[in-house]
Amino acid sequence: MRILVVADSHGKSIDIRNAIDKSGPFDMLLHAGDIEADVEVIKKWAGCPCHFVRGNCDYDIHLKREEIIEVGEHKIFLTHGHLLSIDYGTEKLEYAALESGCDVAICGHTHVPCIIYRKDITVLNPGSISRPRQTGRNKTFGIIESDRNGELHFNIVEL
């Protein structure tokens, strides 16, 4: 299974389309919030199951604040992160994910990509697909791939 993970597109859906074209096909798309665009268009481009959560700049009340997605033996906790003080560290995010029985936590909000491996959980922030803030300001997204043993592998890719 291949999963495209994006966050913080802020209405620039064409950047998501470019990520799909660059690295597709995917079996699933996860968006960690601050979409500010028509999710139906993104779903159409992706052509696979999509999960979206609401960020601090999203006003679509139909989007959930968090979602749990099962991928094989793994459970992914998907949230934007602003309500878990992600600007100050990943501790609250990790705790919320572990309390929900998840072994993967995905967030956005900081616009800075990172992968953190801990004993019981992996944290992925794909950075911003449209408005990066890290050194170099490269647009980034994440890819999660499962191998034949069901183990997940995490990568951050520049657009």
Task: Describe the protein's architecture and organization.
The protein has a 5-stranded mixed beta sheet, covered by helices on one side. A 5-stranded mixed beta sheet has the order 4-5-6-8-7, with helices on one face. The two termini are 21 Å apart. The mean pLDDT is 95. Helix 1 packs parallel to helix 2. The protein is globular. With 159 residues, it is of the alpha/beta class. Helices cover 18% and strands 31% of the residues.
How do the strands of the widest beta sheet line up side by side?
3-2-1-9-10
Structural class: alpha/beta
Shape: globular
Question: If helices are DSSP runs of H or I spanning 4 or more residues, what is the number of helices?
Answer: 3
| Major beta-sheet overview | 5 strands, mixed
Measured distance between first and last alpha carbons: 21 Å
Q: Supply Rg.
A: 14 Å
